[in-house]
Structure formats: structure tokens, C-alpha cells
Amino acid sequence: MIGFIGAGNMAGALARGWGEPVLATDSGSGRAAALVEELGGETLGDNAELVRRADAVVLGHKPYQLEQVAAGVGDAATGKTVISILGGTSIAQLQAAFPQSTVIRAVPNTPVALRRGVTCIAEGGEQAVALFERVGSVFVLPESQMSVALATTSVMPAYVALVAEAAIDAGVRGGLPAARATEMFLATLAGSAELLIARGGDTLTVRREVTSPGGSTARGLAALERNGLRTAFDEALQAVIGG
Ligand SMILES: NC(=O)c1ccc[n+]([C@@H]2O[C@H](COP(=O)([O-])OP(=O)(O)OC[C@H]3O[C@@H](n4cnc5c(N)ncnc54)[C@H](OP(=O)(O)O)[C@@H]3O)[C@@H](O)[C@H]2O)c1
């Protein structure tokens, strides 16, 4: 069984995507018990016992808790595979915390819960590729690119939700009932993503196909540019990477 230290949003999404019984701990909220109730397995009161009993361990707590968690696990991690999903935590830091373990650095995103996730794995962690392919696409990257990966894939479900909210609100201001605007926008979003994929990621072609010279789409795109869409994404990336 996979053992999860922490049963929060990201660990829960992975566990649900894998869809198998788990060993899990939390820091007292009851989220581990809720996960076990859903998937089967066992809630444990002690991270060291979890690590001893798990086939592989996923670190699903917050990054700043690494040293405290590793100290609690101690020798139990000897010879184990420890998969970290901790944002901004390097392989060197992980290896220092778990010197007797095989450590893997992965950056997943929450659509793994639907097996439509994207997981980036730092080079050296290839043995985890098949596991994460069960819950979506996997990209193996040099470790130096993992921060940018986090800033463009992990955070993206939140950005897309914000974009959806803004577009739906605009539709409501334009006179659409909210439920109808939501349904229409989400269908458009899914279809547009499929179209971009079908066009091999050629964003310019997709834009040109919608944009008549001097037409309404051209006016809408210009308004988005004037209001700093590109700068907003660029600054968001810098904000994420900068911590
Ligand atoms: N959320 C995302 O989309 C996302 C994406 C990529 C990577 N990550 C990474 O995933 C990690 C978790 O993020 P999250 O958003 O899932 O946070 P979260 O929902 O707050 O979950 C953190 C979990 O860790 C548990 N925990 C804290 N200290 C613990 C300890 N000593 N022993 C066992 N469990 C402990 C918490 O317990 P309680 O439930 O009792 O509070 C909670 O279940 C972070 O390192 C983050 O960088 C998140």
C-alpha cells in the first residue's frame, strides 16, 4: 500500500486518482480517517509506523514541516522510496532529511483526482513515472525546471478557476443567468482546450480562425492585451517562483 504522510488536498487528490486503499496520517484534523473511509486502508497515529508498513511513501504535508516529519520517522525510512510532492523542496533537501531512502521529487496537480493530471518528475525519479501515469500525463524534467513546472502546472487549476469565474461574471453582467453562463463557459473551455490540442498547440492558428480583421474578436483580444493579460501571467510566475 502507498502511505501518505498528510491527507490534505493534494495527497487526497492523488489517493483518489490511484483509487486504492491507503495508509494515511494527518496532524489531527480527521482528514486521514475520511480518506481511509472512502478508499479503504488504515489511519495510523504515527508517521514512523506508516513508513515502516508502506510500500512507498508520499510526503503530503507542507514544505516547512519536512525536518520535523523526517525526525519523527527516523530509521524507519531506511531503504524506503519516499516520493515528495512538497513545493520548492530540492532533491538535496529531501536526501538530507531522508539519507537512507530513495527520494523522488514530483510536482502533481489536482486533476490527478480525475486521472487527468499533469505530474512533473525531476530527473532521477524515473521509477515513479508508471505510478503517476496512472493518474494523467507525466513529464520528466531537469531539477532546475521544477519551480517553473510548479508555477505553470500545479497552480493552473486555481488560475483556470479564477479565469472561469471572471468570464462567467462578465457573462452575468452581460445579461446571462449565472447557471447558464457557467454551463456555456465550461463547455467552451473544454472544447477550446481540445481544439488547441488537435491543432498541435498552435495558438496563433486557433486565434486567427476566430479573429476576422477589424471584427469583434479582434476588439476583445485587444482589450485583454490592454488590460495586461500577458503581464499578469508573467508576474504570477515570478510571484510563485520567488516564494
Ligand atoms: N494543493 C495543490 O494543488 C498542490 C500541488 C502541488 C504540490 N502541493 C504540495 O502538497 C503539499 C500539501 O499541500 P496541500 O495543499 O495538500 O495542503 P493541505 O491540504 O494543508 O494538507 C496538508 C496535510 O498535511 C498534514 N500534516 C501536517 N503535519 C503533519 C504531520 N506532522 N504528520 C502527518 N500529517 C501532517 C495535514 O494534517 P491536518 O489535515 O490534520 O491539518 C494535512 O492533512 C505541500 O507541500 C504543497 O507544496 C500542493
Write the layout of secondary structure elements.
Layout: E1 2-5, H1 9-18, E2 22-25, H2 31-39, E3 41-43, H3 47-53, E4 56-59, H4 66-73, E5 81-84, H5 91-97, E6 102-107, E7 117-122, H6 129-133, E8 136-141, H7 146-154, H8 156-173, H9 178-198, H10 203-210, H11 216-226, H12 229-241
Parallel strand pairs: 1-2, 1-4, 2-3, 4-5, 5-6, 7-8
Antiparallel strand pairs: 6-7
Helix pairs in contact: 7-12, 8-9
Catalytic activity: L-proline + NADP(+) = (S)-1-pyrroline-5-carboxylate + NADPH + 2 H(+); L-proline + NAD(+) = (S)-1-pyrroline-5-carboxylate + NADH + 2 H(+)
InterPro entries: 6-PGluconate_DH-like_C_sf, NAD(P)-bd_dom_sf, P5C_Rdtase_cat_N, P5CR_dimer, Pyrroline-COOH_reductase
EC number: 1.5.1.2
Q: Strands across the major sheet, in which order?
A: 3-2-1-4-5-6-7-8
* Order of helical and strand elements: EHEHEHEHEHEEHEHHHHHH
> Mind telling me the C-alpha Rg?
21 Å
What structural class results from the helix and strand content?
alpha/beta
Gap between N and C termini, in Å? 33 Å
What is the CATH T-level topology of the largest domain? Rossmann fold
How many beta-strand elements?
8
CATH architecture annotation name of the largest domain: 3-Layer(aba) Sandwich
Low-confidence stretches: none
> Beta fraction of the residues?
15-25%
CATH class of the largest domain: Alpha Beta
